[in-house]
Amino acid sequence: MKIAYLHRLTFDESEARFVEEARKIEIDLVPIKYRKLKMIEGKIQFGEWDLKDFDGWYLRSVGSELEWSKLLQFYAKKHEVPLVDEYLKTEGPLRRFKSIMGWQLEEAGVSYPKTAYVENLKDLEKELKTWKLPAVVKLSAGGRHGMGTFWIRELADLEKLKHILEARREKALEMNQKRPIFRGFLLQEYIKNDGDYRVMTVGYKCIGGFKRQVKEEKLILNKSQGNSVAVKDLPAEVIEIAERAARVLEVEVAGTDIIRNLETGKFYVVEVNEAPQFKVFERRTKINAARKILEFCRTKFQKNSRTQKLKNSR
């Protein structure tokens, strides 16, 4: 079986792990970066390969590749090429915005923190004045390793947040990078918790999880107070919520973060990450995530191949 592994960035534990595991289970995995693709006369190609000739595509990381992801969506539909994840057939990269994720979860009745979405810092300040503090502010477009999540204890912290964002703009200029425009803010209630569960689902089924310690209560809410710990038996409710959230969002390979309210005991989905990194997951759980993902892709793509053969024989 020949699978196109489409990705945007190279992480230490992802591309190498997938290539290694694919070789072991006799999958011909071809890593392809989006910007190495070309479209000529309606054909999307990687080198001399036509992407429709692959048995399936695993779009590991889409991020800001709006143009290519949409073209690939059209191409997959035209040639009936199966792909992972399913959300790429609908929202596509828009799914990465936390506002859109939150809307979908709330509409489906999945437990999600009280949330407001505003466009700019001025509106954020107005809204914060009506909220009980502390509260959590997130960049809707996200931020790697929690760098887009902030803990606001008092209104004065908003000024500190403004300085942080301005410093990030200046750093981008110094490094000759495109200056970011920070817009789109999620404001969420702060739920006192004892840490969060990271649950990994593949094909909407839980394959395992671990627990991270409670975050340090500081402005950038990205660092836990201690190391994550293995969880032998995840609470049944945590598994159920993670699987449901992934299915609602059509994220077939997901890392879902779930917290428990210490006052009420209720569980809440904090975030559903598509293409989650799994270095820590594998270390904590001893589960081979890369192989689980590849086996899921193979099963899905083989099923599609059999369906196509039946159609062609009629």
Keywords for this entry:
Dna Ligase, domain 1, 4-stranded parallel sheet, 5-stranded antiparallel sheet, Rossmann fold, alpha+beta, 314 residues, 16 strands, 34% helix
Give the CA-based shape. globular
Q: Please state the average pLDDT score.
A: 88
Strand content: 25-35%
Number of strands: 16
Q: Helix-strand pattern, N to C?
A: EHEEEEEHEHEHEEHEEEEHEEHH
Q: Which strand order do you get reading across the main beta sheet?
A: 14-13-12-15-16
Percentage of residues in helical conformation: 25-40%
Largest sheet: 5 strands, antiparallel
What is the CATH class designation of one domain?
Answer: Alpha Beta
Unreliable stretches (pLDDT < 50, length at least 5) are: none
Spatial gap, N to C terminus:
24 Å
What name does the CATH topology of one domain carry? Rossmann fold
Number of helices: 8
> Any guess at the CATH architecture of one domain?
3-Layer(aba) Sandwich
Structural class: alpha+beta
Structure description:
With 314 residues, this protein is an alpha+beta fold. Among the domains are: 2-93, Rossmann fold; 114-190, ATP-grasp fold, A domain (Dna Ligase, domain 1). The chain is 34% helix and 25% strand. The protein contains eight helices and 16 strands. It has helices at residues 15-24, 66-79, 98-107, 121-128, 156-174, 236-249, 279-285, 289-313; strands spanning 2-7, 28-33, 37-40, 43-46, 49-50, 56-59, 83-84, 115-118, 135-139, 149-152, 185-189, 196-202, 205-212, 229-230, 253-260, 267-274. The chain has a five-stranded antiparallel sheet, sandwiched between helices. Strands 2-1-6-7 form a four-stranded parallel sheet, with helices on one face. The longest helix has 25 residues, at 289-313. The protein is globular, with a radius of gyration of 21 Å. The two termini are 24 Å apart.
